[in-house]
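Annex B. Sample input.
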Amino acid sequence: MAKLADLRDDIKKVEADLGAQLEAIDDPSSLEAFRVEFLGRKGRISALLKQLGAVEPAERAQAGQWLNDLKDRSASAFSARETELRRRAMDDRLAKERADVTLPGVYRPYGHAHPLSKVQEEIESIFMRMGFDVATGPEIETEYYNFEALNIPADHPARADWDTFYITDSTLLRPHTSPVQIRVMERSTPPVRIICPGRCYRRDAQDATHSPVFHQIELLWVEEGLSLANLKFVLELFTKEYFGPGYEMRFSGDFFPFTEPSVQVHIKAPGASHWLEIMGAGMVDPAVLTAVGYDPERITGFAFGLGIERMAMLKYGIDDIRTFLTNDLRFVHQL
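Annex B, continued. Sample output.
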C-alpha cells in the first residue's frame, strides 16, 4: 500500500515543477507542451490519480482532496496563462497594424476620361445650357425608324447591304442616331428640343477618316414658327462655345432625304484662308413631320448631326480616327 506521506511529497514536487514551467511559458507551443505534461490523459497529474487506489482506505479521502486541489489549481493556472498569451498577442498585433492617421496619404492617380467621352460631355453641356434634353434609343433598329420614317426611299444607296449592317431583313445596326428623333416625336407633342448622342455603324473601310463604328450627336428642335434663321443662330452659338471666339460659320446647299431645305455647315478658324465642313443640317422635311402625326402647316423644325470623332479631331488636332481605338495610354493622358 502507498503511504500518504510519499504521495504528498510527489504532489509537492509536481506543484513545484508546474509553477516553474508556468512562468517560462511565452508562446502557444510551450503552453501546449505544459498542458500535455501536466493536464493530459497521460500527464503527471493523471499518473498521481492512478496511485489513489493504492493508498490506505482511511487516508484515501485526504489524498483525493489533495489531488483534486492540484488538478483544479493546474487547470486554473493554465487557463489564466492562456488568456494572458492571447491578450499579449492581440496587443502586439494592434501595435503592428496600427494606422498613423497623421501620416500623409498614399497618392492614387485618377484615371483619364477618353477624348471621345470628354467631347461628348462638352457638346451635351453646351446644348443642355440652351434648353435641350438628352434622348437615347436602341442601337439595333428597324428599317421603319431608320429609313422609312425619315423619308429615305427604298432605292436609296444607304439601304443597300454594302452600306448598312443588317441583322435580319427588317432589323439593322443603326447608321445614325436620327431614329431617336422619330421615337421621341411619336410620343411627344411640340415643342420638342432634344439631342441624341450614341454609337453608330456603317460598312466603311477603316482609314484615317473613316471607321465602321463611330459616335454621333443629332439635334432636333420642333415648334411653331421655327425657321432656317433659328438653325443658324443655334449653330453660330455652338461654334463659338465649342471652338472659341473668332470662328466664322456659313451654310452651303446640300440634299438629305429627311430635311428640306438641307445645308452643309462650314467653319473657318481665325486667320485661316479655307472653310471646313463639319456637319449636315436642315429644316425637318414635312413628310417626316406628317409621319409622326404633326401638322407641317403649323409645326416646323430643324435638325443636324455631327460626328463626335470629327469634333474631337478638330479640337485636339488628331489626324487619324484610328488613334481613338489604339488603347495607347500616352494618347489618353495627354488630352
